[in-house]
Every structure is written in C-alpha cells, then in structure tokens.
Amino acid sequence: ISNAPNATINLLANGQVTQITYGGAATFENAGQLNVSGGPNGAILADTLINSGTITVNSGTLNLKNGGINNSTINVASNALLQISAGTFTCAIGSYLNVTNNLLLSGGTVNLAGIVNVGGTATISGATVVTGSNVNFSNWVISGGFLTNSVPLMINGPLNWSGGTIYGVVQCDGGTLSGQQVTLNGTLINTGTLNWNVSTMLD
Predict the structure, then answer these.
(1) How many CB atoms within 10 Å of residue 32?
(2) Do 146 and 165 touch, CB atoms closer than 8 A?
(3) Nearest to 67, CA basis, from 14, 99, 26
(4) 1, CA 20 to 30 Å: which among 12, 16, 112, 152?
(5) CA distance 81 to 87
(6) How far apart are CA 90 and CA 68, in angstroms?
C-alpha cells in the first residue's frame, strides 16, 4: 500500500488493518497525510510502516506489529496512543515523533535517533529501546525489556522501574524502584525523591 505525496488516507479502524497473507515482505508507505482514528481495539498494522510524509493519530491506538521507519513526522494526540509491539522501528535522524500523551513500547527493537517528545508516559514493557541525544520524556515506566543509550538520557520527571535492564547513563527526577528484580548495567543518577522498594538490584 502506498499513499502518494499530497494524497490523504483517513484510516478508521477497529482491529487488524492489514494482514500478511501471501508471504514475503509487505509495506505500508506513506508519503502524504495519514490520519488514524482507532476504535476500542485500535488500528493494528501488520505491514512494515515506511513514513516520509505526516501521520496524525487522532484517537485510539496505532499498533505497529512489524516495525518500520519514520523519516518525517508522526503526531499523536492527547486521547491517542502509539504502540510498537514487534519488529524493528526506527525514528531516523532528522525525523519527529511528537506524542502528546503516552507511548507504549511492548516488543521488538525501537531506535529513537530523531527528535522525540513524549508529554505523558513512555512505557517499556518488553522492547529493546535505544535512545539518542534528542529525546524529551517527562515520565518513564520500565516493567521489562531493555533501555540503552549512546549518550546520557535525561528524564524530565520520575522513573518508575519494576523490571528489565538499563544500560548506559540515565538521570531521573525521583520515582520508584519496585518489583522482584531490576538490572543496572550502567549509571542511574537521581535528582529528586526516589522510593527504593525493589527486592533485588543487579549491578
């Protein structure tokens, strides 16, 4: 599927939008404007997303099940959610990912090399996430998976960490360490009030 420059697709979906049936690689290429309104079950995209235009998620959840690449702009409204659940997804250098509310990284590998702003909560529940130097997060929740960075990650708010592994340098403004076990293979710098309730930290 290809959306040409200057063209518009208004995607109204409640469940699986595409499904790879005939084998091989399938892509959803957007060079124009893609507007997403997801129902209670969200808009689930099984094709690899290739974005060189503008994607606006107005409501519901856009769930990327086969990764992709953002070379341009993705905007997520306050009553919407972007979820990366599988595959490899990259925000390329020079791209923009603007999430007004929440970002869920539940699986796959996520490379955030572009400019990324998350106004609500960014959650890692199973993905491997690599952050660059132009990320701005107000709240991180890590319950599983891996967080790593090529430069120190500054969180402009709390870190709530209950599982998974952190590599590299992460700075947070307080938060909570909880759960049975977390693994720190790097440095955690706290500048606020951090409540330490985790059973075991491996470092």
Answers:
(1) 17
(2) yes
(3) 26
(4) 112
(5) 18
(6) 6
pLDDT tens per residue, range 119-144: 999 999 999 999 999 999 999 999 99
In 3D space, the residue among 179, 93, 115, 187 whose CA is nearest the CA of residue 148 turns out to be 187
How buried is 184 (Cβ within 10 angstroms: 0-12 exposed, 13-18 middle, 19+ buried)?
middle
Which two tokens mark 168? 């590299």
Is the pLDDT assigned to residue 62 strictly greater than 90? yes
Percent of the chain with pLDDT over 70: 96
CA proximity to 185, closest of 161, 162, 169: 169
Residue 56's contacts (CB-CB under 8 Å, 6 or more residues apart) are 33, 34, 35, 36, 74, 75, 76, 77
How many Å apart are CA 186 and CA 15, to the nearest integer?
39
Residue located via tokens 């319950």: 143
Measure the CA–CA gap between 171 and 51, rounded to whole angstroms. Answer: 31
